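Dear colleagues,

As part of the handover before I leave the project, I'm documenting each prediction I ran so the next person doesn't have to rerun anything. This entry is a single chain, and its sequence is reproduced below.
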Amino acid sequence: MKKLIVAMLLLSATWVQAQDQPSKWAVRGYLKAMTTFLPAPNLDTLLTDHLIHHRLNVRWFPTDELTVVGELRTRVFYGDFYRG
């Protein structure tokens, strides 16, 4: 067990590196999953509605004067309210 811990510490020490310059990429975003429940007394059932919302923001800094930006947003609706 001690040999395993020592080996893991040595291997993890080789992965650690100092960053001389900031990254040329910035990636941010989020993913949300939202659900709505609505009791329907006339139907004697429970209606459900779902929304999945996703956003991805990417920035690339090729030079100090130039920035390239790309953004993507996706929304998916499904459930009882969206049946045709």
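The longest helix spans residues 2-15. The mean pLDDT is 83.

All the best with the project,
I.
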